[in-house]
Amino acid sequence: xxxxxxxxxxRADEDGACCPGLAAAPLDEDQAAELAEPFKALGDxxxxxxxxxxxxxxxxxxxxxxxxxxxxxxQPTISHHLKLLRQAGLIDCERRxxxxxxxxxxxxxxRLAAFLSxxxxxxxxx
Length: 126
Description:
This protein has helices at 29-41, 45-55, 64-67, 75-87, 106-116, and strands spanning 62-63, 91-96, 99-104. It is of the alpha+beta class. The longest helix has 13 residues, at 29-41.
């Protein structure tokens, strides 16, 4: 198998562009490990629903008190799932009195979306 023309994501190309999408070039080990964290967090249906509920909320943030009733799970279990989403860099939060408010981190979501893009780099055959 020829390695001619093989580009590793994260290494700048001739134009200085970095991190093309999925269809443009293979990932190196470090990038794969870094991207695996948020994708692993999204691999659970509860966490995927939580992120969707948070990201789609009008005003950009939601109280944990509004998230918990949507699930047939205990509050500690919901908190655990939210913690994993925070550790993966998908959401952040702030305590206000008794309640904790969550919001999505658009930069992380945009990075994941850009990686999953199947748009090929200019000049790359389909």
